[in-house]
Amino acid sequence: MKLSEGDEVITVAAGFPTSIAPIVQNKLVPVFVDVELESYNIDAEQIEEAITKKTKAVFLAHTLGMPFDLDKILELAEKYRLWVIEDNCDALGAEYTLKREYNLIKGKKVSGRGKTGTFGHIGTSSFYPAHQITMGEGGAVYTSDIDLYRIAKSFRDWGRDCWCEPGCDNTCGKRFKQQLGKLPFGYDHKYTYSHIGYNLKITDMQAAIGVAQMDKVSAFTEKRLENWKRLQKGLKDLKNLFILPKYPQNSIPSPFGFALTVRDNAKFTREDITSFLEKNNIQTRTVFAGNMLRQPAFADAKIKLRIGNSSLLISKNLTDEQYSRLPNTEIIMNRTFWVGVYPGMTEEMVDFMMSKLYSAADARG
Ligand SMILES: Cc1ncc(COP(=O)(O)O)c(C=O)c1O
Fold first, then answer.
1. Range of the domain at 63
2. Residue from 62, 131, 189, 195 carrying the catalytic annotation
3. CATH number of 221's domain
4. Active site residue 189
């Protein structure tokens, strides 16, 4: 079940590099599927045609805290025996209710209501300051599978095979009693490496902050959702000029931000609006990379990839015709931006943001 060079992983180009870079770094092939406007998540209806015999995993983020279509994705993961990795970095605290039970590989069964990040085999969180909770920097990986837990821990701890906590010895009872790799029998398990890993450990100080922040997750995410709903309601009169965001009915999002896409009939550009907002002290962001395939990291390099059901392509040689196979991703790159819903914002601050959005759009017709 281990992925090998050339195996394919379904993902999207409209997002953050974290759900793409590890695919490339591990010599796997990213397969890009277009996204929906409104939710900014993968268009789940387009996934099946992108699946081949080489497809082994789906690696996706719940964009800006709006859960993606977990039912459809788990149904495909069950049918095609795929690993599911949820990048939950923007969505800590979000919930989703599944329509039925799904039996995934490695005996994982999921059903009913749960937190995003717990439906797939592995979930990830970021505790960068902008996120729902923070430790200053750093993040977490979560899984309910003991083998995956040990593998993740090994990658975190330089690739070591031993899983003893600091200060502990011989938890497995075989510290000097086994032969691994081509090492001599009995080689100290503490210094046995089964992966090419990293040092990704957080400090105790960060962990202490993280533990204290955990107590605040619900209050923070409720306030974020309240701010998000206030924007959704208050901006509805701009719906002819902007596409306003939506989330699946069987979910409770944990919004990271509130996204708007300038409609093609509007007489202004995204930059007209974002520069006006920025001049008024309102920060704006794009949906991260916009279209990752147009970023220098891809456009200037020879990375193997596929787009939908295409054959193998090389990132540097992509043509406009190939980019146009991800039409909504292109729209997001050109016309989408988002504003914050930080829990420290008061109603007055949210209303100020709205009034400036109305003025920006009014002034430009
Ligand atoms: C979806 C997503 N994943 C991952 C990250 C990055 O997390 P970190 O900076 O902790 O690596 C971000 C950052 O904003 C993100 O939006």
1. 8-143+290-323
2. 131
3. 3.90.1150.10
4. no
